[in-house]
Amino acid sequence: MTANNLMDLVALKPLSATEAGCVDRVLRAMRIHLGMDVAFVSHFRRIDRVFTHVDSASSVPLSPGDVLEMSAGYCRGVVSGELPGLIRDTGQLPAAMAVPQTPGLPIGAHMSVPIHLSDGRLYGTFCCFSHAPDPGLTERDLKMMRVFAELIAERLESDLEMVRDHDDKALRVLEVMQEQQPRVVYQPIYDLSNMRIAGWECLSRFSGKPVRPPDVWFKEAAEVGLGKQLECLAIGMALAGLARLAPDTYLSINCSPELVLSGELLGVLQDYPAERLVLELTEHAVVQDYVSLQVALQPLRVRGVRVAIDDAGAGYASMRHILQLRPDIIKLDMSLTRGIDQDFQRRAMASALIAFARETGSVIVAEGVETEAELAQLKRLGAANAQGFLLGRPEPL
């Protein structure tokens, strides 16, 4: 699959209401100043032009997103010099009357100026027209329109940069997905009562360029509308290893609230034993509507899938997740476990969370354990499970 084919799978980033509104306000100001009926910006493409912004005083058969052949209308003629930029009365100009849109819309007076970007490239045109002739239009009006066209060009250039940035991100994500990334590594989670492996956390690793942490890849995928696809790909790869792991161990999979709310997880997980699956929701995942998330999780929990809250103790969000979602597993963030044997405040916080878990029937997993002293302290506090480099690094199967 080529880069062009990949980009066919991604829609161009739409402009936000604020971004589009800046250009729309300029169009309206100019249209009202000139006393004309319609103002629009058209973007020239290879074989056609698209109306990106339209402002009108009344109903006209012209809307943002409409596409015309390049030869249709006035724009190409104005840019090439075949038509003047200022036409007070189209009925007095045979070349204007030869344009089908003149009687069709109708167009009685017309003004148009080209829009050039800072590098000199022609973007398209800024046009205004009225249904009736307007002998009061002047060259001064045309000059003012050129000034407004420069303002529009600045806004459009900023928008184009955002679209290019969006497309670059989408292409990077699609390319790593095409390469069947991410690859999955498994980190053991130990039962501290018998020091046997209770489960495995699945972690994603990317080898694509640029080199950056997995959370950045997933964040970028979400920004361009590919977050759920990338998550499903990673989860599918993780689940492929379940059959090779000991049958009395579980698989802990990181998952965003957006993917849960989409309902797609039911299909992804349906062929796997639910009692061996845990969904981890991170502290950093923003939840706007906990009721909807609870409803979306319910069919999975009924089947036997457990829910874990990751990074507990790292911030306020994790505590809200715990209180609202009533997780089966609470994972203590490594910021609590690191040096817990030497810091009474960490011990106090971890002890409180362990006591909370005991009261609510949740299971504690302490993350990031790196020393024997940390492990011993967590055992004394009553932590049920632990993972970290001391116990086992994330490795491929």
From TrEMBL:
SMART domains: EAL, GAF. One of its GO terms (molecular function) is cyclic-guanylate-specific phosphodiesterase activity. PROSITE patterns: EAL. It comes from the Bacteria. Pfam families: EAL, GAF. Residues 166-397 form the EAL domain. Gene3D superfamilies: 3.30.450.40, EAL domain (3.20.20.450). This is Diguanylate phosphodiesterase. It comes from Pseudomonas rhizosphaerae.
